[in-house]
Amino acid sequence: MEIFGASELAFNKSFFAKTYPKTLKIQDAHIQDFASSEVPQSSGSFNYPSTMQGFDGRFILWRTDGPNLYLDEYSTSTDLRDASLCINFSQSNVIPSVKAFVKAGMFVLVVPTQSSIHRIVVSIDQRDDVTLGGRSILAYFPRESELQYYWDVHNLKVSGTATQAAITVSDIGKTFISLVMADGPLILVSFPMNAVQGEPSDPPMETVLYENGGISRFFSNPVDSNEVSSVAISLVENDVLIFAVYQDNKLRVWSANTKQVVFSAPFSQFIDDPTLARANGVTVKTSVDTDDVIIVLKASMPRGLTNFYFLKLTGKVANPEFELLTSINFESKSVLDYLALGSPKQNELAVVWVIAHEAFDPDRMDSSYQPYSLWRCPIFTIGSYRWERVHSAVDDQSFNELKFAFPKSLNAIKHRIFNGECYSFDVVHRAIQIACRKDPVVPIVYNDWSALVTYVEEYVASGFFIQQYLEKDEDVSLNMFSYVSSTAQVAASERFYETLLRYCDEFQEAGLAPLGLWYSRSLDLVGVIQACRFTVYTRGDTQMMAIVGSVQNQEAGVSRAFAIADEYVDNQVGRIRNDFDVLSDITLELCEVIRLFAEHCPMDGVKMASAGTPTIATSFTSGYLSIVLRRRLMRRFKFATLIRNLIQLVNELGFQTEDGISERWNSVTKTHDGTIFQIADNYRKVWSALSYRLTRQDHKLSDDGLHRVTVGQAFFQLGKDLVTKFDVVAALGSNGSDDDEDASSTGSRFRLMSESESPFAILLREVVDGSIISLWPESTSLTLACFLARQGYADALMAYCLENSPFISELEKAFTFYIAVANAIHGDGKQAFAKFTNVIDGIKAHDNSLNIAISQMLNEPVDADAVTKHSTGDYLKIAMDLLRKYHHVDYALKMGKIIIDSGNCEGDAAFFALVYTDLFKLHLNNEEYTEAVQMVGNNPGKHEREMCLRELVSVMLRKKRYPALANLEFGELTELVAEILERNCQATYVSWDDPIINVAYSFYVKKYMYDLAARVYIEYAIRLSKESETRAVIEKRCHVLAAILGLMQCVPTVTYELKEAAPKEGESQLNRSDFVVVIRQHPNDAITGTLIDKQWLRIEHVKASLRKELINQYPVFAIPPTDTEELYKDALKYRMYDLAFTLCQKCKLDVSPLIEQITYEAIVVDHEEQEVRNEIDFRLGQMKHKPGMLKIMANKAKSVPLTSQPQWIISNKQFVIHGEEMLMPPHWKLVYSYLKYADSVNPSTVPFRAAARQCIKYHKALPDWLKTAYINRHAADLMFLYIEYDELSSALDVYDASLDNFEKGFKDQLLKTRTDLPYSMFDQVVAHARKRRPASDPIFRRFNEVRARTKEIVNLFESLAAATRLQEEHLRSQHVC
C-alpha cells in the first residue's frame, strides 16, 4: 500500500551550510571564454574502504557549482569537527566526475576543470585525531600558503574545453583521467602517485585517443571519429579500460596501457534491440565488483521511454567481448541520473535507482513541489522487473500530511515552516523578509530558528501586521479607539502564514533541484543530492505492509478503498456514492485489515534490549532516526484515521442502501472501533511529542548553540539507557520471505555492488521498531515522559502529559507524578508540592506505573515482571530531590520534614542520613547556618556528619561568612569542627593569606580553646617564615606573633614543640605540611624538636617587628636580613633605637654600639644647639644699642627652643623614664633611660664606658648624671678613659670625687661599707704625665696636692680603723667575762 511505502527523507542535518568556514582558493589556467561556458552542476559521494579502521560509518558528499567544489563529510559514529570545505578554482568551472580515493595511507582528491586536472593529497596515516579525535579529514586540507606541498596540476595541452571526465586509480596509486572535449577528441591523462610529495617521478602524460592513426585521420569523418557523447573508465586486471560512446552509436573501448582501441562496434552487434538505433542519446556507466565488470547503457528513446542495458565484459582485455545480461524500460524520457546496485535477495539480480524529471502538476492541491521523482526498480532472476516510485521528502512532510496531526491548519503551517526539516534556514529567512515587509530586517544569525519564530510572533502582534494583512471589509482606522475583532485577527493570521508558506515553497523549489544520486555501501544508504540538501531513502513499514498484504489478490481494491476514505475527510458522501460497489465487494478483506491493525498495536511487556550505543547519539544518526520514527508514526496515525473514516463512510452508505451492512462488518467495526480510535490517538500523541521543537531555554545540542532540535532527536542523542531495539521480523515471523526460484542459475553471473542490509540498517530498523513500543503512551514505563523529566524539558513534558489527559487508571498516578516534575521545572513549587503529596497513596497501593517511574528517575533497572516496590520514604526522598534540584527550597524542606516525621531514624539509619544530609544542604544554600548545624547534629551517620561539616566550613569560607562561622554554636561537634579547620590550615595548597587560618584562630578563641588558637598561629608564623618574603608577609608575621604573645597570657604554663611532620598512610602530599607544632603535655618530657615558649616567641616577635619597620625604610625590592647581628646593625643605621635596644635585651647582644651611637647623636644635637645659641648671642650683640622691636624679638627668640627635636628622638620614646631628671634635655634623657634600663637588667660598666668614651672622644663634658653614675660604678675605668684621651685633669677630678666618696662613706657609715680608692689609676695618671708632659706643667703641682690629701685621708681611715678594732676587742672581752 502506497501509504506505507518507501520514501525520501530529509532532516536538519541533511541541509548544506549557507557559507563554508574554510575556503581553499586554487589558481586555474584561465581562458576568458570559460567564464561564459555553462557547466551543469554535479555531485557524488565517497566511501572509505572497509579495511580502514576508525572510518566506519563515514562518507563524503561533494557538489559542484561553477568554479566551486563543496565537500561535506558525515559520520554515523561520531560528530565530526571541521567537516566542510569549499575549493575555488578561479574562473574555470569544475566539470562532472570528481573522484576521491585512498591509497597507501593517502587521501587523494582529483578534480577536473575545463582546462586542467588538479590533485590534492592529504596523509591520513598515523592520525589519531582523525580516527579518534572526531576531526574530519577535510580539516587537514592545506592552507593556501602550504598548497604547493600537497597539490599538483596538469594544464591540458590540447585546445578546447573539457565537458566531462571519468577517473579511476590503479593498484599502485597511478591516476587515470579520461576527458571528453567539446567538439574535440578523447583525452587520456595519467598521474604518478608520488608527484605531489616532492619525490622525483615521471611527469603526467597526456594522450589524444584516435581510433585511426596517421594520415587516415584526415580522410575520415571527424564527427564519427571525434565526438564522444559519454565516457566511463574501469580498472580491469592489470590494465585500465576506457569505455566511450560516440555519436555514431558505437561503443569503443580503449586500453590505457597501449593507448589503442581494443573494441569498436555498433550497439546492434551486441544488443539485439532494433529500436536502439532510434535513440536520442546514449550514456555509459561502469560498476566493478571482485571479478566482473558490468557496463550499464542508458538510451533515451522516442515517445518518452528510457531503456537500460546491462552488459557483462567477457574475454581478455586485449580482445574484450560483451554479453547482454538484461534490459529494462522506464517510462520517462528525462532521466537525470541512475545507479545500479546488487541485491542480497536470491530472487533479485539487481536494483536500479533512477532520478527522473518531474513536471509540475497544475491540479496539485499542495504548493510544495519537487522537480524530480526517485524510482527504484528491482530486477528479478526470472527476467521481470517492477518500478516503484519513492515518496518524495516534500510530499512526505507536506501540508496535506500534517493536517491529520493538527486540528487547526494554522498550527500545521507553523510546524512545516519552522521545524527545520522542510525548508532551509535561508529560505525561511528570505520568505519572512518578503512577507513581513518591515524594518529592521530579520535577525541574520545563521540557524537561529528561535530568533525567527520570535520575530514573526512579534510582527503578528504589531500594528504593522494589522495594517498590511486586514482585508478591506475588516480594515479599521488605527486610532486609539479602534478595535480589531478576534475573528478578523485570526483570519489575517491565517492569510499571513499561508502567504509565508507559499513564499517558502517558491524559494525552496530551486534548492530542491537534483544533482545526482549518492550511496554508502557500508551503511546501506541511498539518496539524492539536491542543491540545498541531500535526502536518504528509507524503506517502508514492513509490518503495516504485511497487514495490508494479508488480503490476497485484493490489495489494489483495499488501496482504492482507503483512497476513497481519504476523500471522505470533508464528509462529501454524495460525491463518492458511486464507489459503494467497490467497498461492498471487499468488505471481508477490509474487515481482516481492520482486525489485524487493531490487534497488532504496540503492547506492553515485550522483551527488548537496550540500544543506547554511541552511534545512536551522533547528530546524523539521531536526526535520521527521529525523522524515520516520526514518519512511521504519522503514516500509521493517518492509516488509523482513514480506517475510522472508512467505517463511518460505509456505515452511512450502508444505511442508505437496500443491501445494508453485513453482520461481519458490524461485528468487526463495533468490536474494534474504540480500539482504532485509541490507537490513532496514541500515534498522534507520540508523533506530536517527538515533533516538539526544543527552545533555546530548553537545550543546546549543536556546535553553534543556535539550531534547535526536536524531542525525537534529543531522545536518541541523550536517551542512553531509555533507547531500546526490537527485531520485528523475528517476532512476526518471515511473512514476507522471498521466492528464490531460479536464483542459483543467475545469481553467479550477475554480481554488482551489494545492496545488503548492513549492521547500521539493522540497528536503525530495530531501534525504530523498539521505540514505537517503548514510547507507546499506554505503556506502564512511560519512557518518553521519563526522558523529558530527566532532561528537564518542562514545556514538552507538560504538553505530553496534557495530551494524554484524561489518564487511564493504570497510569494516572505516574502521569500526576510527571506533571509535578514539570511544575517543579517550571518554577511552580506550590503546584509541584501539591501534586507530589497527592501521589503518596499510589505508593501505598503499590501502583506499578508509579513504581516504574520512580525506578527510572533513580536510574534503577526495570523488570516488568518484577517491579520494584518503593517505600513511601523513597518516594518522598525523590520528590524532595526534585524540588531541591529546581530550587524550591521551602517546599523541599517541607517534604523533608514529612519524611522525618514519618519514620524512625534508628530503623533505617542510612536512609535518614541521606535525608538529613539533603536538609542540611538546603539550609546551607538558604544561608540558614544555625538550622544547618542542627541537621548535622541530628544526622545518624558519622561519616555524613563529618562530610556535612566540611561542606559547611567550605561554603561559609567561600561566601566570606567568617564571623558567622566563628560564632556558630556546634555543641558536641565543636571538636570535630576544630579538627576540620586545623586540617585545612595545615594543607599546603592553602596560600599564606588564606582567611581559613584567621577563621580557625577566631573560632578557637570564641570557643575558649586558647592553647589550640596559639598553636594554629604558631604554625602560621613558622609557615610565613618559609614563604617568599614580601612586605605583606613580613607585616603579617609580625601581627601574628604579637597575637600569640597576647594569647600566651591566658595559658602561661603551656609550651609547644616544633617537629618534622611524619607522613600518614594514604594521605596526599598536597594535604599535609612538612612540619607540625604540638602541645607539650608534660614539661619534663624530652625535647626532640624545637622548644617554643614565651622567650622564643618574644625574640621572634622583636625580630619580626624590627624587620617590619626596616622594610619601610629600604628601597624597593629589598628585604631585611634574618640574622640577628645584621638586624641590629640595620636598626642602628636607620635610628630605630627602641627596637635595637629591645633586640639587645631579648637576644643578649652587646648594648655598647647602641649607647655609642645614641650618645653621639646627643652630642651632635648639643653642638647644633650651641651653634644656634652662639648665632643668637652674636646677633644680640650687634643689636645691643638698637632699641625697638628688633631687640625685643631677638630677646624673645633667645627664650624659645633653639632647634626642633630630631625625628629619632620623637620616634624612640618607649624606654624614656619620666619623673626623673625632668630638666634633662630629651636627647640626653633618652641616653639616660637606655643606660639605666641596661644597668638594671645587667649591671655592667660597659654601657657607661660606651657613653663616656663618645663624650670624651668629641670633647664633650660628661653630663653630671653620667659622670656621677660612672664614678659610682667604676671610677678607675673612667679615669682610664681620661688617660686614654690625655684628659689628665679630668682624671684627677674623678680621683678627687672618689676621695670625697671614700671619706664620706667611712665617716657616715662608720666603716661598715668598704669603698676602694682608684689609687693605682692615680699612679698611672702620674706616669702618663711624666711621659707626655714637661716638668713645668701645672699638673705636677696638682699631683702633689692630691697625693697629700690622699695620705691625710688614708691616715685618718687607719686611725679610725685602729680605734674601731680596740673597741671591738674591749666589747669581746667584756662579753667573755
UniProtKB/TrEMBL annotation:
The keyword Acetylation does not apply. It comes from the Eukaryota. GO terms for cellular component: nuclear pore. Residues 1207-1295 form the NUP160 C-terminal TPR domain. The keyword ATP-binding does not apply. Residues 776-1043 form the NUP160 middle TPR domain. One of its GO terms (molecular function) is structural constituent of nuclear pore. Residues 58-536 form the Nucleoporin Nup120/160 beta-propeller domain. Its main location: nucleus. It is found in: Nucleus. Keywords: Nucleus, Transport. This is Nucleoporin_N domain-containing protein. It comes from Panagrellus redivivus (Microworm).
